[in-house]
Amino acid sequence: MSTPTNQAAWHPAKNARKLEVKEAPYPQPLPNELVVKTAAVAINPVDWLIQQKGDLMFTWIKYPFIFGYDGSGTVVEIGSQVTRFKVGDRVTGFPCGTDPKINKSSESSFQKYMILQSQLAVHIPADMSFEQATVIPLGVSTAAAGLFEKDQLNLPLPVFPRKDLNKSIIIWGGSTSVGCNAIQLAVAAGYTVITTCSPKNNELVKSLGASYAFDYNSKTVVKDIKSILSTLNKPLVGALSIGRGGAEACMDIMACPESNCENKFVAMATYPEPKETPTSFVLLKNAATFVSWMAAFKAKGLFTGVKSNFIFSSSVSHNGVGRAIWEEYLPKALSEGTFKASPEPVIFGKGLDKIQDAMEFQKKGVSAKKVVVQL
């Protein structure tokens, strides 16, 4: 049988501002890998940030390179040690091609045929489309890293049946992709979730399991969350922050004795950026923003006793957290419907040539949605 022809949306150089669609090598699976014919991919802010900050992000990558962190499709080949999947299975999974220990284009989703590690893949339920399933991978992996990794919040993993631990957690930015997944994972692990979002998304975050939802734009949001925590009688185990200003607000909440915080720690999913995208001296201005913000935030942390760490999503592929979520939790949670593919996909178009335009569309901002391209 002849080898299928692969195509990809390549990032041609670190400073390139447009993807190029052209032929790509057909990937060969290692013993614990799958080759998946990609049916749908999702767009994340990191995709277009790479084009803006090529000199600053993923410095170990050699270009041209293929990116893409969300993908779903049909298994067409399996490695010699794969036992959970077979050819023809519908799957979604987290491709970690940009991880420094992996660093290979074949494990990225912006192509017709991609590699997935079997430990970072899951069967798609019969009643779920490829487009719905592809909103899951990066969001759930980032959330899992922040909640469960030892150098992050280090919470106990979800169990069946769920056990109420009588403790609370803050998920700042609950209607984002990471937030939607973090709420569900935290609830499954036994925690009462306090989250923030726009009022129009209150119903969404509560449908995912959040007990309390506050407007992050409210001038009294920090005060209001402190008030809830002071009467809740459920010790706060820390926070996972998504979005500009979230980490600072979470630190202010945890620094207050009335918040009843037993673990003063913020797992941060969003990196600081200049308020306005620089058009000149891009590397210098981005680096200056990061360094100055970090210095101020860490100094305040020393004063308040609040520790913090940035989340690096692909680390779940190396430390057991990925396997615990993708192999042990998600299969049952998805099949039983206790874990929902969220946020809702917005289908932008079809074809690799639509990915660049979809990135430009996502850059303008979407609320409680995730932009998806069919392949």
What does this structure look like?
The chain is of the alpha/beta class and 375 residues long. It has 2 domains: 6-136 and 341-374, Quinone Oxidoreductase, Chain A, domain 1 (Alpha-Beta Complex); 141-313, NAD(P)-binding Rossmann-like Domain (Rossmann fold). It has 10 helices and 16 strands. The strands form 3 sheets. Strands 3, 5, 6, 7, 8, 15 and 16 form a 7-stranded mixed β-sheet that branches. Strands 11-10-9-12-13-14 form a 6-stranded parallel β-sheet, with helices on both faces. Helix 10 links the parallel strand 15 (344-350) and strand 16 (369-374). The mean pLDDT is 93.
Brief digest:
The chain is α/β, with parallel strands linked by helices and 375 residues long.
Work out the radius of gyration.
20 Å
Full CATH superfamily name of the largest domain: NAD(P)-binding Rossmann-like Domain
What name does the CATH topology of the largest domain carry? Rossmann fold
**SS elements, strand count:** 16
Give the overall average pLDDT. Answer: 93
Q: Helical proportion?
A: 25-40%
Distance between the termini: 23 Å
CATH architecture of the largest domain: 3-Layer(aba) Sandwich
CATH class of the largest domain: Alpha Beta
Q: How much of the polypeptide forms β-strand, as a percent range?
A: 15-25%
Structural class comes to alpha/beta
> Which shape, going by the Cα principal axes?
globular
Q: Please work out how many helical segments DSSP would assign.
A: 10
What is the domain tally?
2
One letter per element, helices H and strands E, the order comes to EEEHEEEEEHHEHEHEHEHEHEHEHE
